[in-house]
């Protein structure tokens, strides 16, 4: 059952009897029980999709994803099988299995049983209608006229005892917890009414400040029903938690109907329970260690089957104290010299009883061995029954203790609970960094971790500290190109990103990977990692000793591969703050490659060749916290400056090394600091060349004008973006960036074709504005031939100072509007912009960009303090009206669709 909020119901007796009979008829006609498949990790989307996704938090970190968990008894076919999924039976996660009545041989799942491999009973449909009908009427049947002596006789499905919730039935024990605190404390923010934000809101009440609210939520698990209520009593918050569960010695059948009541269990003493589970060697060691009294206490034991325990004992005490791992058979970086048999047992003993459903993902259980904890992790199973042949009784999730799979769960004895793990739990006292430091095959990994400061992260310990390290060994780093290794050892941002590509902030045990499908999660760079089993290695005939040690080993080794590239050579090296896996290949990532590699991988060949021929490759590769605006190869071919540098590459490459003009050109495309598109804003950013670049944002949406989805830098549009490199980011642009050497006034003066417009400007008081370094203007300039067509008007205007002032101000915009920011604009979504004179100009785009009545014939001439657009007509604006309607003449769409400053920025 998922967590829900209790809502008051209308009494059933108030429903008209005729309507009630109709409802009964509808309920009876429905013969299929509807189940809800909970969303979340491990969800299945059909036979064509074989991917079990672990979203950020591997193995269901949220309690609500585990509230439908049921007791389970998984059969241990072979305790040394490296992939338990090969022997599991499918069950669609979230579906309640059909009811199977308890048999004489299986009195209850919480009582230890010996699995005999028999097939499950035939599907029993007798409970379907009962379940559906009970859901329809729910608990009001208890108090309605159907439930008492005045009910309708002869209808078995109206029996109140059968329809009463199990947690209101017999053999249920109740625990109550209460907490009272001041409403003004910082943690009292659970409830708000109408989301009010201040005193001005009509219903802006927070918490319980005004109304006496009573909020109640209930959650049902397999063996518990927990209700939490929050009340306001005289200005104080009272939290009351009531837990109802089957009393000790009673339990609910695992595969029974959803409302199955607590039944008497046939419990055995703890010693007998452990013995019947096939852990005789574990039990013998416990007794020899003088810990027999432990069996009389309420404890949780993680016991080990005889075969696995004997193998471990032989390795530990007879083979130089080496920890046994059936997959890797490698020495662990853990010192067993001071451990005794008693310590091993204590490391498997936890005070208190813990049903597996009550333990959350990443929870640490403190054992009786000081300094040794057991970390519980939860993982999805993968595909459902139709693909893997799983039985209806299987658990929807898989559990590990210190990465060892739990193969039998929740075996209740007369005093405590027993779980079976498939191998001995090695006490994890060393941190991940301690393990790396003690391994002789990880000298390079240790060096990079210390150089980047990530060693401090891997030393952190605590309940909320859990990491997974896919650690390349020295051979893996030596397989890298020597040039890349040299750049990594330089200590720049490459090493940091490469290492983060191998680290998760969750515990990912090898059990998380499901055989036959792909399992995915995300690393600390938020990049996706995919895991799948594959046959790796050369054909190998095992020796006699290998056959004796692992009789099931084949000629090839089945290992987990990451992103189809790296294989896990040694898995599940458990630390106090996570787990380490040894891999044979460094996982590549664009964000961990130098800028020269990133340019090559994205086919930005011209810019890369210019860097190389200029002798600046090492310098650029060493940069960090930078933003590279890199023109595409097509951009170089479409501009005069770009074609010039292409010719130099082809004809005179020897002249490019040390070329000052090229150096300035390249460095002008490098800004500081690192700016991703999510952080872009309209501003000027400094470049490595000592000049600034102007960033502008625009919207192409006619309705949501404040949602920016187009960006430019010096009017060059970003066409691909957020391509990460070593501590930096690359944005591809559609134009080369010329270094502007003049302001707007100087640009007008330098072009003879602008002389007639310049004469008009010089007669106004705008020359100082156009020369201002921080102006940020857009200048609309008609060329001389436009004025010559209306020469009489031009000469007349020269004599009218007021009219001249109005006309020139209509050609100056107070912000930068690049041509890429002018998009089609039709009524009623008309885009306008305001001039420095206060006039509104219409913006539109047909075959070319248009401003009012003029078309733009040449776009984006970049100056130091703005841009120039050449236009083919004089901007025609009428004198502003100054009547009572105001400056805009009472226009009904005042400012509608105007180019405004952005509020948010989303890319298409």
Structure description:
The protein is of the alpha+beta class. Helices cover 23% and strands 24% of the residues. It has an eight-stranded mixed sheet with strand order 2-20-21-22-23-24-18-19. A hairpin with a 5-residue loop joins strand 27 (683-686) and strand 28 (692-698). Helix 10 (443-452) packs across helix 14 (493-500). Mean pLDDT is 74; it is low at 1-52, 55-159, 187-211, 320-335, 385-393, 539-554 and 882-908.
For this entry, what is the oligomeric state of its chains? single chain
Q: Kindly provide the radius of gyration, computed on alpha-carbon positions and rounded to a whole number of angstroms.
A: 37 Å
Beta strand %: 15-25%
Show unreliable segments: 1-52, 55-159, 187-211, 320-335, 385-393, 539-554, 882-908
Biggest β-sheet description: 8 strands, mixed
Task: Give the integer mean of the pLDDT values.
Answer: 74
- Order of strands, main sheet, comes to 2-20-21-22-23-24-18-19
- Terminal residue distance: 40 Å
Total E-strand runs: 40
Range of helix content: 10-25%
Number of helices: 27
Shape: elongated
Structural class: alpha+beta
